[in-house]
Specification:
The longest helix has 14 residues. The radius of gyration is 22 Å and the shape is elongated. It is mainly beta.
Amino acid sequence: SLGLVGSEMCIRDRASGALLWKRHRLPAVGELIGDDEFLCLCPRDGKQATVLATGDGRLVRQCTLPPQQVRVAVCGRRFVAITSPPNAEAVGLEWFDPARDQRVSLGAFSPAARAAQAGPETLAVLEPDGALTLVDLALGTVRFRTVLSAMPSGLESLHVVPWHDRLLVFAGRRETVQEPVSYTHLRAHETEA
């Protein structure tokens, strides 16, 4: 089990409770991400992120990462972040593996695009024109791209649910003032039939 108190971290054996390793004088942590190989202590501003080996607590490296507020999705020690400046014409997304010092561009997307986790290792990005991109969070690759039809105008939300060998994609927006009247009119016709 993992323990993090102030600037000290320790790992204990789950079964016996025996101390496996302990580190002192670690930087302030905004987010702790990791897997069986590496732990990354990420400050909120991304500066001086510390990567430790999970097995023995050895310092692997220190690096600068994108700040926490631009991280879109996390999978183990890897994450996707927005890397373009605010108000850019296109939003750049990149995949990061702090332990291996790897970063991979995933492409440029509309600023109105929405992103949502689509299972533990998948990120879905949906653009207003219906372009759907699925990203493998573990490998940092684009699994596939497709275009969905019948997109709502003014895309505001995205929810993706894995279901068997498929994904259920729910894209939505807020109801307009005129729509409740339309729905009431439709319901009236349904009860007449």
